């Protein structure tokens, strides 16, 4: 029997609407859902081939326990019992921090995963929490918290009304317009605006696919956007080009900004960022005087030591030139559900890490600290880890050190679809479910859509019988460990009672599931046209519902700062900027004259779709992109084997010569070099390309604790054949 299901893709925040054809329980076709009123416009080959991961030949299909060098299948009862007993024994001996946990990017695309993982971490009381934010968007959280009062307050881009786009450290032509916002077809829409006369400026050390189409490409020195942005702010404030009303009424701290820029010298900043002073001045004037404009910042800024300062100054530009909450600028979308409020309730207690002595950011410690927290003996040492939706050996810094650390754990539990590099030492592999096998209603991201929109992400096929959703694993684990979910007494008993009732009455719907919370959040929804959203509305509209027009005027009221103003100059950011100004300009250390840049591929998703045949030609690897003039000096020709090395590691790849990267920058795609193991069949691991993060050390941006994945200095040499 053939049926059609409408849902949306949960690989990236573009959240493309999908029309999926199913025969029996098998997906035969995935196409864009052109009846989706909001979000199908970025539809790409990753979404089109998403069934390949569902049917991955090496997929983990039942809990698997390590025995010697291999794995054997076990029941869920055995798995949960064994993990619970071993974790409880470690907690009894060493305290709760002996149990560490890491959650990666895909966990955020599920409505229940992170919530119940947090419930479980709260249950056991561990503070050994690590998350993908420290290799991605922590700077955004830190800046949003300090300036707007909530780490989750992320203004969205009003692309269709913008006349001047200043895009910094982002390549939307490849990555889609997404970080913590969903702007469907954002890049195409920006190009449409360009055809209507808008200007697109791309700031990137590489002439990317996006930079190619831009009106202006500013090839900034890697890691020095803060200097460029400070210079732009300086020109605007010195020349009195700011938006006087917003600087007086909406924001506080503009005088502190004035004091800061008075100490900076334009020529010095220009030297630091490697861009001509006249170009900076022109950019500042054009941006400030454009009718409608926005700054958009992304991972190209955040993955550097000055990432938070860069992210902050990007938002400062939006604020001081009157772009917040105005057409063509950055708007606050309230969403159908108040995620900011929930985030306040779910706030993690502050904690200082044992070895590095650093605070948590956005509820977790930095991934860069994880190896030492495992390797350093003493009270609080991590002895067991749970990795949920993550591949931190590939995605995080110094993968070799993390791999060594993971190897020495008493217990490593992995929750994933496939066993990858970070999972090779796992004692237990717990089989998760693909988003095509589950329903999601993403209340937490409802204020990240660029128009008021909601869609119930329907389940398309039934999951393999012995796989489970993550929330269920966390609930069962907490119950088996006899530790109260969310740290709230009574909840475990309630869930168990609901399961007993469901079993006795043979009505599985009576057993607790996160579906209940989704329904509750819908019941709490904001009113549109005088009425609240209902569950029935959602079910009756499988393509999703545009709840109303884009509204302006919600920003001020949504601010969570005590004085309801934007804090334009949080003291810790100003102090850090002064520190950066006092440091001499960045210079390469002896023997490592190049900086290691980074790229994404349209057909890869971080470290996890590279092996799928529908996405990459067979034998596809990552290579190293070298500026043609640099290559000539090094005696490297196209196709040569090249060694790229840093003080902590080396990798070998084929050279591709190009004038796209700035001189002094070599670029290697991230996410490659992850082996794919075969726990069921026992076949040899497969591997594609090399992991460029093996070259990255544990340096972090001190304000956001984000790893400096895009600043590493490396040497480059030809490998003699
Ligand atoms: N050099 C460099 N490094 C980077 C970046 C960069 O730009 N440059 N980018 C960074 C960024 S932005 C990110 S987000 C991180 C990503 O870092 P991570 O999130 O740690 O790693 P991923 O590569 O996304 O791996 C995700 C894992 O989740 C599994 N998975 C997929 N769906 C599900 C699911 O529904 N349930 C479960 N349980 N598992 C699932 C996949 O099989 C895969 O093993 O990498 C960061 N690392
Ligand atoms: N196809 C595909 N799409 C994706 C993903 C994917 O893996 N594949 N990942 C998704 C995820 S998890 C995320 S977080 C987003 C990320 O979305 P983006 O942040 O747009 O990611 P990138 O395409 O890596 O673009 C980052 C750009 O920053 C540039 N850059 C590096 N260093 C600097 C610098 O110092 N200054 C400036 N100005 N630029 C610099 C790089 O050259 C690169 O072009 O993409 C999402 N979309
Ligand atoms: S992976 Fe592709 S299809 Fe899926 S949401 Fe992102 S852009 Fe859309
Ligand atoms: Mo990311």
From TrEMBL:
<dbReference type="Pfam" id="PF04879">
    <property type="entry name" value="Molybdop_Fe4S4"/>
</dbReference>
<dbReference type="InterPro" id="IPR006963">
    <property type="entry name" value="Mopterin_OxRdtase_4Fe-4S_dom"/>
</dbReference>
<dbReference type="InterPro" id="IPR050612">
    <property type="entry name" value="Prok_Mopterin_Oxidored"/>
</dbReference>
<comment type="similarity">
    <text>Belongs to the prokaryotic molybdopterin-containing oxidoreductase family.</text>
</comment>
<keyword id="KW-0479">Metal-binding</keyword>
<dbReference type="Pfam" id="PF01568">
    <property type="entry name" value="Molydop_binding"/>
</dbReference>
<dbReference type="InterPro" id="IPR006657">
    <property type="entry name" value="MoPterin_dinucl-bd_dom"/>
</dbReference>
<protein>
    <submittedName>
        <fullName>Molybdopterin-dependent oxidoreductase</fullName>
    </submittedName>
</protein>
<keyword id="KW-0411">Iron-sulfur</keyword>
<dbReference type="InterPro" id="IPR009010">
    <property type="entry name" value="Asp_de-COase-like_dom_sf"/>
</dbReference>
<feature type="domain" description="4Fe-4S Mo/W bis-MGD-type">
    <location>
        <begin position="2"/>
        <end position="58"/>
    </location>
</feature>
<dbReference type="Pfam" id="PF00384">
    <property type="entry name" value="Molybdopterin"/>
</dbReference>
<dbReference type="InterPro" id="IPR006656">
    <property type="entry name" value="Mopterin_OxRdtase"/>
</dbReference>
<keyword id="KW-0408">Iron</keyword>
């Amino acid at each position: 029997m053939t049926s059609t299901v409408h849902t949306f893709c949960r690989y990236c925040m573009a959240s493309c609407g999908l029309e999926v054809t199913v025969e029996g329980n098998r997906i035969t076709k995935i196409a864009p859902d052109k009846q989706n009123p909001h979000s199908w416009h970025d539809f790409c080959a990753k979404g089109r081939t998403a069934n390949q991961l569902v049917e991955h030949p090496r997929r983990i299909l039942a809990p698997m326990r390590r025995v010697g060098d291999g794995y054997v299948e076990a029941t869920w009862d055995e798995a949960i019992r064994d993990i619970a007993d071993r974790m409880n024994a470690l907690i009894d001996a060493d305290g709760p921090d002996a149990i560490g946990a890491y959650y990666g990017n895909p966990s955020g695309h599920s409505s229940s995963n992170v919530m119940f993982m947090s419930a479980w971490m709260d249950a056991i009381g561990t503070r050994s929490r690590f998350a993908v934010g420290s290799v991605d968007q922590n700077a955004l959280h830190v800046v949003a918290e300090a300036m707007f009062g909530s780490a989750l307050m992320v203004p969205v881009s009003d692309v269709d009304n913008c006349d001047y786009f200043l895009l910094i450290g982002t390549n939307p032509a490849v990555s889609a317009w997404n970080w913590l916002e969903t702007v469907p077809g954002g890049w195409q829409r920006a190009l449409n605006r360009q055809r209507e006369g808008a200007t697109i400026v791309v700031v990137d050390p590489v002439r990317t696919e996006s930079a190619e189409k831009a009106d202006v490409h500013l090839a900034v020195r890697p890691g020095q956007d803060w200097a460029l942005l400070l210079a732009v702010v300086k020109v605007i404030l010195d020349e009195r080009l700011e938006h006087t009303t917003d600087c007086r009424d909406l924001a506080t701290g503009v005088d502190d900004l004035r004091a800061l820029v008075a100490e900076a010298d334009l020529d010095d900043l220009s030297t630091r960022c490697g861009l001509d002073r006249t170009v900076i001045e022109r950019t500042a004037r054009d941006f400030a005087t454009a009718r409608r404009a926005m700054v958009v910042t992304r991972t190209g800024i955040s993955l550097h030591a000055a990432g938070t300062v860069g992210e902050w100054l990007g938002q400062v530009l939006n604020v001081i030139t009157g772009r917040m909450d105005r057409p063509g600028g950055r708007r606050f979308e309230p969403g159908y559900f108040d995620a900011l409020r929930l985030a306040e309730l779910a706030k993690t207690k502050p904690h200082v890490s044992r070895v590095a002595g650093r605070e948590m950011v956005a509820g977790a410690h930095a991934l860069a600290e994880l190896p030492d927290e495992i390797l350093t003996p003493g009270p609080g040492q991590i002895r067991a880890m749970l990795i949920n939706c993550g591949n931190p050996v590939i995605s995080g810094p110094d993968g070799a050190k993390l791999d060594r650390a993971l190897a020495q754990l008493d217990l490593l539990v992995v929750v994933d679809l496939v066993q990858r590099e970070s999972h090779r030492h796992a004692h237990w592999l717990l089989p998760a479910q693909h988003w095509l096998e589950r329903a999601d209603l993403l209340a937490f991201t409802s204020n990240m859509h660029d128009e008021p929109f909601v869609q119930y992400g329907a389940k398309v096929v039934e999951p393999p019988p012995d796989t489970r959703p993550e929330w269920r694993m966390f609930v069962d684990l907490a119950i088996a460990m006899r530790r109260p979910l969310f740290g709230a007494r009574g909840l475990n008993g309630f869930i168990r009672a609901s399961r007993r009732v469901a079993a006795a009455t043979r009505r599985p719907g009576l057993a607790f599931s996160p579906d209940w919370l989704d329904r509750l959040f819908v019941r709490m929804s904001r009113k549109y046209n005088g009425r609240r959203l209902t569950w029935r509305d959602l079910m009756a509209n499988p393509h999703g519902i545009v709840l109303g027009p884009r509204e302006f005027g919600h920003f001020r009221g949504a601010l969570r700062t005590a004085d309801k103003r934007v804090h334009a100059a949080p003291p810790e950011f100003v102090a850090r900027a002064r520190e950066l100004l006092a440091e001499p300009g960045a210079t390469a250390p002896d023997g490592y004259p190049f900086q290691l840049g980074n790229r994404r591929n349209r057909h890869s998703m971080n470290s996890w779709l590279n092996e799928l045949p529908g996405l990459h030609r067979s034998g596809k690897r990552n290579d190293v992109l070298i500026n043609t003039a640099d290559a000539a000096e090094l005696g490297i020709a196209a196709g040569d084997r090249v060694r790229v090395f840093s003080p902590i590691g080396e990798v070998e790849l084929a050279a591709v010569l190009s004038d796209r990267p700035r001189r002094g920058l070599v670029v290697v795609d991230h996410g490659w070099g992850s082996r794919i193991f075969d726990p069921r069949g026992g076949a040899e691991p497969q591997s594609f390309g090399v992991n460029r993060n093996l070259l990255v050390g544990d340096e972090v941006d001190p304000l956001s604790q984000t790893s400096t994945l895009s600043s590493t200095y490396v040497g480059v040499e030809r490998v003699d054949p």
